[in-house]
Amino acid sequence: MVLIVGAGITGLTIAYLLAKAGIKVLVLEKEKQIGGLAKSFRYGNFTFDIGPHRFYTHNQRVLAFIQEILGEEGKILERQTAVYFRSRYYSWPLHPQALFKLPLPLTLRAARDIFTQGFRSKSRERSFKDYIIRQYGPTLYEVFFRDYTQKFLGISSEETHSTWAQMGIIKAVIDEKAAPRSLIGLIRMALFPPAASLKFIYPKGMMGSFCEILAEKIEKLGGKILVSYPLEKMKISEGEIKTISVQEESWPVERVIWTAPLTSLCSLLRVSSRGLEYRAILLYLLEINHPPLLPYQWCYYGDPKIIFSRVSQPNLFNKLAAPPGRSGLCLEILCQKGDDYWENYQGLKNRVLSDLIRVGLIEGKEEIINLHYQRIPEAYPIYHIDYPQRLARIKKDLSRIRNLVIAGRSGSFWYNNMDECIEMASEIASQIIRSKP
Ligand SMILES: Cc1cc2nc3c(=O)[nH]c(=O)nc-3n(C[C@H](O)[C@H](O)[C@H](O)COP(=O)(O)OP(=O)(O)OC[C@H]3O[C@@H](n4cnc5c(N)ncnc54)[C@H](O)[C@@H]3O)c2cc1C
How far apart are CA 40 and CA 390, in angstroms? Predict the structure, then answer.
């Protein structure tokens, strides 16, 4: 039997592919709800994803898999997003007009950077700061990337590894499909906006329905998924995991695929994970008594004075996310498990509401019908400057257990998106199927 720890997209994709090939699978999920980071929260007639969640990929196999799971339940949406910068909204990716709306001194300084860029040696680009200055110049670094990163990760740009630029910022904010990996690229993109890259796939039943459909298929194929089952113990002998246990129950296993946070695996196996941390998110989920005031599916807020870093509007992904004439707002507040925001999340309410009024997402506090909170402890791997060495050491320690595979975003401490989780899951499942006697 193959044991899969974690019922997020990675774990469920592996379980589905193995079950389809006739292999016995058991999925253990710690929470009472499946889906991991790609779940949706439902409150009466309101539904919220964890921030904006959409499928986009150029990988035809991944695309075929998404279509196989969703069938008629998928739809194509046009991306409409923005960046809030110095009290104005700029559509993102940039439109040509945006260049003319930027403050003139800033535009001139950024333009000067084009001529002074390109003289720094690549070998010095270990930190996020060095990488961004080289790619986009010091002006954009100072006015946007520096503060956004500090706010997002909670550490300075000098302490952040350049992986964050390539994996985090470019993927999340800049959008890898538009791929303007330089200042000139950004300007080119603004003048000649890419048309085809701005579409994405979204499930008709909201993002959480993808994992729910997958789970149904797994169970139909004879696979088992147990929720509220956090893996607590593994019995290892002769370099292999032999049995695993949760509370009073134990199962003999041939293989274990771990997709839950790597740090939890380390503490289970008493391997030090010092220096590896995840950034948490505090979600404020608001039910609003009117339709969305702004036309953006999501918007980034880099200004350190604004408490949230991104807001998404579920109605603009799916009209059924709220009852007619109403809407939802999903606010992401980055924090650290155990810090002030994490512990006193309800106490932030007044600050959150006044920031929402300030940025024009509501006009008054009386528009809020209801407010829900969710805390996501391991949302983003934090790429400290020395993380590659620490991660390599942990992987080396874990590689001594021959029948253990680590996978997925949280499991491999890699900033994977869902398409990459599916790709990774398909590779792992193919290897297991190939090695079947
Ligand atoms: C705010 C935000 C927005 C995002 N937007 C996008 C997007 O637009 N497009 C995109 O492609 N990707 C997006 N992503 C990334 C995407 O959500 C992830 O890549 C994907 O969901 C990760 O899936 P996973 O299965 O690897 O990990 P996870 O979803 O983290 O699943 C791990 C599972 O393990 C469970 N678990 C933990 N500990 C234990 C234990 N001890 N025993 C058993 N189970 C345990 C957890 O509860 C969880 O269900 C976004 C992520 C975030 C945080």
Answer: 33
